[in-house]
Amino acid sequence: MKILLKNKMEISKYDGIIIPIYEDKLKVDITEIPLEQLKESNKFEGKENDLYKLTILEEGKLVEVVLVGLGKKDKLSYRKILNILGESYRLLKNEKVSNFALVLDANNVDSNEQLVRASVESFIMSDYKFDHYKKKERSSEEPKVDIIVNEIDKYENIKKEAATIALANLISRKLVNEPANILNPKTLSKEVEHLGKEKGFEVEILKLKEIEKLGMESFLSVAKGSDIEPRFIIMRYIGNKDSDQILGYVGKGLTYDSGGLSIKPTSGMVDMKSDMAGAAAVIGAMCAISENKLNTNVVGVIAACENMISGNSYRPGDIINSMGGKTIFIGNTDAEGRLTLIDAMEYIVTKEKVTKVLDIATLTGAALHCTGAAASVAISNNDEFYKKVNESFDFSGEQIWRMPVFDEYKELIKHHEADLTNTAGNPGTITAGLFIGEFNGDLPWVHIDIAGTSLSTKEKGILSKGATGIATRPLYYLAKEQQK
Ligand code: BES
Ligand code: MN
Ligand code: ZN
């Protein structure tokens, strides 16, 4: 998508225009729109989520106009703007419009940073569709949009940054949407090497021998049921050599989760190519962080493998070791994510010397019972760090909800034959997180479960069907916040 900022417009140059309007004092300056009549007939009142499309004749040319209600100015959130603009663009797309303008300075709306950022992010994200494997439907023409604002210079940098962030979200969506017969630990690591070269972060890939040398028995227990070798992916971005602060990101990278010997039913297995959405969020964020040359240090790691079934699979009832030295009773081979994550966590804390750590994972089906698809679920040991994470989600228009950590839950991850058990029981999302927290080296730590938010069943707002690229943008904004 080609996005330009312009301070003048000629309506007849476009096939479509989008006009956002607040609820109060309905007004459109740029062309004749029967706003009074639309209001009287309850067709468009400028209320939040009001969308109305009409066709006008401008200098002999048909132009599709979408009126977008923004509601009351003081009630408007970033999340709402993103989704409303995404929907308005979809109305134009349905009319095969690929050359349009968004009018920000006119009517009763004044441009501001938030609106410009949201429009760029929203148009790029809502334009995406996973149709790579459909031979006929692939769209060819690159859509063009002019964003009309009075002061172009004021917004050029915001536009550029927003575009890289939205594209990072799409990098993440594409990785998740790619099926597991194509994207496996090996091809994923190749893809990350490629992205590192293109965007400018350092990539190191550890193969089986090196992973064994590090003593990652927990990670390798999950990996060994697959014919495809695991990979340990390390991404380093050192943007501030003078600082000893390093932010650590750990992403769950199961390129497929069959459940292992504790096999999933087909209905639960069919979407499990998405079990690397945490990894995808970290990869996408690393891309945006290095493209924008943030003045900060971030290291991301991914223990990439498949959870499969073979004569060499790990079993329910096994007791295994881990890089951190704690032994683990395997109650269920489908609780594999936490086993890969603890060795990745141990590695990033002890070998990369990060000073804060965040892990992100499609970890538990129970996350859906906590907040559904509306919010990612978190736990943390540090209020200050969690506050920053929460703010970065807010800033991106994503939702996150922090769960409590009561002492009772900490008892549940212990086992009578081993130090820990991978099946601690309810509340499943919290106990799974606490299991990983055992390896955080007492650093400020946030754990995010995106099992409920990583896939969308609908095309809506900024979302396409399938992967959402969830948390990619918040992880960028969190790193940006660490610059200060
Ligand atoms: N990858 C799944 C979690 C998941 C479920 C993600 C549904 C997205 C949608 C994870 O590895 C898993 O299987 N978790 C089990 C844990 C249980 C066996 C303790 C679960 O949630 O059922
Ligand atoms: Mn599983
Ligand atoms: Zn899993």
Whole-angstrom Rg: 24 Å
> CATH topology of the largest domain, anyone?
Aminopeptidase
Strand content: 15-25%
- CATH architectural arrangement of the largest domain: 3-Layer(aba) Sandwich
Q: Major beta sheet, specifics?
A: 8 strands, mixed
Q: In total, how many beta strands?
A: 19
Estimated structural class: alpha/beta
**Structurally, how many domains make up the residues?**
2
Mean pLDDT: 96
CATH C-level of the largest domain: Alpha Beta
Structure characterization notes:
- With 484 residues, this protein is of the alpha/beta class.
- The protein folds into 2 domains: 2-149, Leucine Aminopeptidase, subunit E, domain 1 (3-Layer(aba) Sandwich), CATH 3.40.220.10; 165-481, Zn peptidases (Aminopeptidase, 3-Layer(aba) Sandwich).
- It is 35% helix and 22% strand.
- It contains 15 helices and 19 strands.
- The strands form 4 sheets. The protein has an 8-stranded mixed sheet with strand order 7-8-10-9-13-17-14-15, sandwiched between helices. It has a 6-stranded mixed sheet with strand order 1-6-5-2-4-3, covered by helices on one side.
- Strand 11 and strand 12 form a beta hairpin.
- Helix 3 runs parallel beside helix 4 (152-177) and helix 9 packs across helix 15.
- The longest helix has 26 residues, at 152-177.
- It is elongated.
- The relative contact order is 0.12.
- Manganese (II) ion binds next to loops.
